[in-house]
UniProtKB/TrEMBL annotation:
Ranges of compositional bias, category Low complexity: 110-127
One Pfam assignment: Ribosomal_S16
Presence of the UniProt keyword Ribonucleoprotein in the record: yes
Family statement drawn from the similarity comment of this UniProt entry: Belongs to the bacterial ribosomal protein bS16 family.
Molecular function terms, GO-annotated: structural constituent of ribosome
Residue spans of biased composition, Basic and acidic residues class: 88-109
Keyword Ribosomal protein listed: yes
Protein known as: Small ribosomal subunit protein bS16
A cellular component term, taken from the record's GO annotations: small ribosomal subunit
Naturally occurring in which organism (per UniProt): Rhodalgimonas zhirmunskyi
The entry's keywords: Ribonucleoprotein, Ribosomal protein
Length: 127
């Protein structure tokens, strides 16, 4: 059985609340799970202790049994110090598009031109 440690969504519309669960990977996201391992409330402040609660011993047990955490859960486990941090390459998603790059280049050129103009009169008045 392919096991996953993942999030199961609860809560009402626009008020998400997640259970961290150990489930068979073939089961639906919010469907049947084997064990509840903790909770995650994204609406709380990032520094709140109530935001992510996990039973670390049970998480380690399931990891030992071969369960694979999803990306979001693995980030929570990394923050808790349960698993080692992975190197993630955010290849092209974080990179601006071509038009945004062109706008940034134009803005930089205008700023450089303005700086040159400001420097030129200052040099003439110094003479």
């Amino acid at each position: 059985m392919a096991m996953k440690i993942r999030l199961a969504r609860g809560g009402s519309k626009k008020r998400p609340f997640y259970r961290i669960v150990a489930a068979d990977s073939r089961m639906p996201r919010d469907g049947r799970y084997i064990e509840k391992l903790g909770t995650y409330n994204p609406l709380l402040a990032k520094d709140s202790e109530e935001r992510v609660k996990m039973d670390i011993e049970r998480v380690q047990y399931w990891l030992g049994e071969g369960a694979q955490p999803t990306d979001r859960v693995s980030r929570m486990l990394e923050a808790a110090g349960v698993i080692a941090k992975k190197e993630r390459a955010n290849l092209k998603k974080g990179e601006p598009g071509t038009k945004a790059k062109e706008r940034a280049e134009e803005k930089a050129a205008k700023a450089a031109a303005a700086a040159e103009e400001a420097a030129a009169p200052a040099e003439e008045s110094a003479e």
